[in-house]
Write a structure and sequence with these properties.
The complex is a heterodimer of chains A (290) and B (332). The longest helix of chain A has 34 residues. Chain A has 11 helices and 2 strands. By secondary structure, chain A is mainly alpha-helical. Chain A has one domain. By secondary structure, chain B is mainly alpha-helical. Chain B has a single domain, classed as Orthogonal Bundle (ABC transporter involved in vitamin B12 uptake, BtuC), CATH 1.10.3470. Helix content of chain B is 77%, strand content 3%. In chain B, the strands form 2 sheets. Chain B has a two-stranded antiparallel sheet. In chain B, strand 2 and strand 3 form a beta hairpin. In chain B, helix 2 packs parallel to helix 7, helix 2 crosses helix 13 and helix 3 packs parallel to helix 5. The chains are: A mainly alpha (290), B mainly alpha (332). At the A-B interface, helix 3, helix 4, helix 9 and helix 11 of A face helix 5, helix 12 and helix 14 of B.
C-alpha cells in the first residue's frame, strides 16, 4: 500500500470520527427542534460546559472514565434546569422568545466559563489506556479515534433502539411530529420535553468530553462545533434524525478531505453545500417542515 | 401625534445635550457617546427587520462588519479616498451583500430565516478570517488614513481630531435615524408592518411579500453598513473579532429587545441602557458581559416589550388616572 492510499484511509477515518461527533451534537439539536420548534442556540454551549467539567474532573480524579460518566450528566442537569425554569416560561410568547432565551443562555454560559476557568486553552491528554496506535494494513492509526467512532456508534444504536423499540421512543416520535395531539391524548408532554432536552444536552455533553483530547478546551469551541452542528441540522432537515446522521457523516468527510486538498476553502465548502441544498430544497434534505 | 411630538422633543433635548457633552465631560465620554450612537444606529437598522417585519436575523454583523471592512479596505488601498464616499462605500458594500443573500432568505421565515442568516454571517466571518492576504486575518485591517471632510472651496475639516469626528458621527447617525423613521412612515413601511402581522393576507391583497422583505433587508443592511463604516473610522481598525463575530449579531438583538422592539425609539433606549451598564459594570468587573447576558434573559422572561413597553405602560397608567380623576374609580 502506498502513502497516498494510506492518506486516503487516514483522512476518511478522521472524517468518520468527526462526523460521528458532529452527529452526537446534532442529534440532540434536531430532536429538540422537532419537539419544540426551536433551534437551541445554547446547545453547543452545553457541549463546551461538559468539556470544561471533564477538564476539572481529570484534574481532580485523573480518571477519564469517571469524567466521561459524570461531566455529561452535570451538563444535562444544567440543560434540564434551563428548560424547566427559562424556556418553559417563554413558551407562550412563541418561537422568537424561546430563541432569544437560548441566545441569552449561550452568552451567560460563555461568560461564566470565562469567569470560572479563564480564557486560556487547556490541553487534555489522551487517556493512558487509549493512548497508542492500531495498525490498519501498514498505517498506524490512533486508538483514541477508533474509540470515538466506536462509542458514538454504540450510542447511536442505543438511541435508535430506544426511539424505535420502546413505548417512550414512540411517544417522543409522536411528539416530534405533533406535540399538541400527543398532549391531547393524555401524555404529559412537558415532562417528555424536559426528558428530551436532558437527553439532547447529555448527548452534546458526551461529545464534549470525548472531543477534549482531540481539540483543546477553550471558550471558542462552542462556536466552532456548534456552527457545524447547525449546518447539519439545517441541511439534514429540521427534526430529521436520519438526515442529521447522513449529513453529519458527509460533512465530516467533506471537512477532512477539504482540509487535505484545499485547506483555505475547507470551511466554506460546508456552507456552499448548505446553500446548494437549500436553494433546491428549502426544508433540508429530509425535512418535512420549516 | 402627541406621543411623536414628545419623542421628538426628547430627541431634540438629547441633541442639544450631546452638542455640549465634549465641553463638559471631556473626550473620553464623547468617544463613549460616539460608540453608543453607532450602536444605536445599528440596533435601529436591525429593528427594521425584527420589530417592523418580524424577521429574526442572527447575522446582522454581516452588514456591520461588511461595511466596516469595505470602508477600511477602500481607505487602505485608494489614496485620497474622500470621507463621504468612504461612508457610502460601507453602506453600499452591505447592500451588495444583502442582494447576494436575499434571494435565498426571502423565501423562508421564522426559525429557518434565523438559522440561514446565522450561517451567512458566520460564512463571511470565516472568509474574512481565512483570506488574510486581503483582510489581515485575526489582525484585521488597521492604520489606514482617515480622510478629512472636504467641501471644495468652502471648508476642510480634519477628522483625526476626536472632537470633530464626534460631531460628524453624530450628524450622520441622526440623519440616518431620520431617514429610517421616514421610511417606516411611508406606505411601503406600512405594508412591511402588515407582513409581520399577516403575511398571507398581504399576499392576497396583491403585494409581493418576498420582494418587500428583500427591500427591507437591503435598507436595513445599508444603514448597518453605514454604522460599520463609522465604527471602522472611529477605531481606525477592523478585525473579525471586533466586527464580524456572532456576538456582534447578538448585540443589536439585545439592544432592540432590552429597549423594546415595538417602538422605533426602543433600540436607542436599549443601546443607551447597555452602554451605561457596560460603563458601570466595567468599573467593578471585567466580566460585564455576564451582567448583560443575565439582564437580557430577565428582560425576555419578564418584560418582552422592553423599556419602551415599560414607558408606555407607565404613560397609559398615568393618563388613565389623570383623565378619570374624580369621575370614576381607577381601573386596574
Amino acid at each position: 500500500m502506498d502513502s497516498t492510499t494510506a492518506m486516503y484511509i487516514a483522512q476518511s477515518l478522521n472524517g468518520l470520527a468527526y462526523g460521528m461527533l458532529l452527529f452526537l451534537v446534532a442529534s440532540g439539536l434536531t430532536l429538540i427542534f422537532g419537539m419544540m420548534g426551536i433551534l437551541n442556540i445554547a446547545h453547543a454551549s452545553f457541549f463546551m460546559l461538559s468539556a470544561y467539567f471533564c477538564h476539572t474532573f481529570l484534574d481532580m480524579t485523573g480518571s477519564f472514565l469517571l469524567a466521561l460518566l459524570v461531566a455529561p450528566l452535570i451538563a444535562a442537569f444544567f440543560g434540564v434546569l434551563c428548560e424547566r425554569f427559562l424556556l418553559r416560561k417563554v413558551h407562550a410568547f412563541g418561537h422568537i422568545g424561546e430563541l432569544l432565551i437560548t441566545v441569552g443562555i449561550s452568552l451567560v454560559i460563555l461568560e461564566g466559563v470565562k469567569f470560572f476557568w479563564g480564557t486560556e486553552p487547556y490541553l487534555v491528554a489522551v487517556p493512558e489506556m487509549l493512548n497508542g496506535f492500531v495498525p490498519i494494513v501498514d498505517l498506524h492509526y490512533p486508538v483514541y479515534r477508533i474509540f470515538v467512532i466506536g462509542l458514538a456508534l454504540l450510542i447511536l444504536v442505543l438511541m435508535a433502539a430506544i426511539l424505535f423499540k420502546t413505548r417512550l421512543g414512540m411517544v417522543v416520535r409522536a411528539a416530534v411530529s405533533d406535540a399538541d395531539m400527543v398532549n391531547a391524548l393524555g401524555v404529559n408532554v412537558p415532562i417528555v420535553f424536559m426528558l428530551v432536552f436532558g437527553i439532547g444536552t447529555w448527548l452534546a455533553g458526551v461529545a464534549g468530553v470525548i472531543i477534549t483530547p482531540i481539540l483543546t478546551v477553550f471558550p471558542g469551541m462552542a462556536d466552532q462545533v456548534g456552527l457545524d452542528a447547525f449546518v447539519v441540522v439545517v441541511t439534514g432537515g429540521f427534526g430529521s434524525l436520519l438526515g442529521a446522521f447522513i449529513v453529519a457523516l458527509f460533512l465530516g468527510e467533506l471537512n477532512a478531505f477539504g482540509i487535505q486538498f484545499i485547506p483555505k476553502l475547507a470551511p466554506v465548502l460546508m456552507f456552499a453545500f448548505m446553500a446548494i441544498v437549500l436553494a433546491f430544497k428549502p426544508m433540508g434534505l429530509f425535512g418535512e417542515r420549516e | 401625534m402627541k406621543q411623536n411630538l414628545l419623542n421628538w422633543i426628547f430627541l431634540a433635548a438629547i441633541v442639544i445635550i450631546a452638542a455640549f457633552i465634549p465641553m463638559i465631560f471631556g473626550i473620553y465620554y464623547s468617544n463613549v457617546i460616539v460608540l453608543f450612537s453607532i450602536f444605536a444606529l445599528y440596533a435601529v437598522s436591525y429593528n427594521l427587520l425584527l420589530g417592523y417585519t418580524g424577521l429574526l436575523s442572527f447575522g446582522h454583523a454581516m452588514f456591520f462588519g461588511g461595511g466596516a471592512y469595505a470602508t477600511a479596505l477602500a481607505l487602505t488601498h485608494i489614496p485620497g479616498f474622500p470621507l463621504l464616499l468612504a461612508l457610502l462605500t460601507g453602506g453600499l458594500a452591505a447592500v451588495f451583500l444583502a442582494l447576494i443573500v436575499s434571494p435565498l432568505l426571502v423565501r423562508v421565515s421564522g426559525t429557518a430565516f434565523a438559522m440561514l442568516t446565522l450561517a451567512f454571517g458566520q460564512l463571511l466571518y470565516v472568509i474574512c478570517l481565512k483570506y488574510r492576504e486581503v483582510t489581515g486575518g485575526e489582525d484585521g485591517v488597521g492604520g489606514f488614513p482617515i480622510p478629512s471632510l472636504n467641501i471644495p472651496g468652502i471648508v476642510s475639516i480634519e477628522m483625526t481630531d476626536p472632537l470633530k469626528y464626534y460631531y460628524f458621527a453624530l450628524i450622520v447617525v441622526l440623519l440616518s435615524l431620520f431617514i429610517m423613521w421616514f421610511f417606516t412612515k411611508t406606505p411601503f413601511g406600512q405594508i412591511v408592518v402588515s407582513i409581520r402581522d399577516n403575511a398571507n393576507r398581504v399576499d392576497y391583497l396583491g403585494f409581493k411579500v418576498p420582494h418587500s422583505k428583500a427591500i427591507v433587508f437591503i435598507v436595513s443592511g445599508f444603514f448597518a453598513g453605514i454604522a460599520g463604516a463609522l465604527y471602522a473610522m472611529l477605531q481606525d481598525l477592523v478585525s473579525t473579532d471586533g466586527a464580524l463575530t456572532v456576538y456582534m449579531s447578538f448585540f443589536p438583538i439585545m439592544m432592540a429587545f432590552i429597549g423594546g422592539i415595538g417602538s422605533y425609539f426602543g433600540p436607542i433606549y436599549g443601546a443607551a441602557i447597555l452602554t451605561i451598564i457596560d460603563e458601570v459594570a466595567a468599573a467593578y468587573t471585567e466580566h460585564f458581559e455576564l451582567v448583560t447576558g443575565i439582564i437580557f434573559i430577565l428582560v425576555v422572561l419578564f418584560a418582552p416589550l422592553g423599556f419602551a413597553g415599560f414607558l408606555n405602560f407607565v404613560k397609559i397608567k398615568w393618563s388613565a388616572r389623570s383623565s378619570h380623576q374624580g369621575t370614576a374609580e381607577e381601573v386596574s
